[in-house]
Design brief:
mainly alpha; elongated; 5 helices; single chain; 108 residues
């Protein structure tokens, strides 16, 4: 897809459906910033699970300000599931390190 077409499509989304669905852009991003700042309080580094949690917070911010959009709820649930899988994988790796055996990628 040519760059101009990508930018035209993005502009149409920002000024059309997305603006209606998610509310005013500045206010939406302020909500996201407040949620992420609260989440990041006392954090030095982020994990994969943290990233999924923060993406879920983005969906929560959109639900708070925008119009009803079922996808924001479904996506939020999806990010919660991703966070769980990331946290489980991290726990598995920590457990294997404690018993001194490297974890094979295909182990469950």
């Amino acid at each position: 897809m040519p760059a101009k077409q990508v930018l035209d499509q993005a502009l149409a989304l920002l000024s059309g459906d997305r603006a209606n669905t998610h509310g005013p852009m500045w206010e939406n991003h302020e909500n996201i910033a407040m949620l992420w700042n609260g989440y990041l309080h006392n954090r030095d580094t982020l994990t994969a699970s943290d990233v999924a949690n923060m993406m879920e917070l983005l969906k929560i911010a959109r639900r708070k300000l925008g119009t009803f959009n079922e996808d924001d709820y479904v996506d939020g649930a999806g990010y919660a599931a991703v966070s769980l899988q990331c946290a489980e994988e991290k726990e598995k790796i920590k457990t294997q390190a404690r018993i001194g055996r490297p974890l094979a990628r295909n182990e469950e």
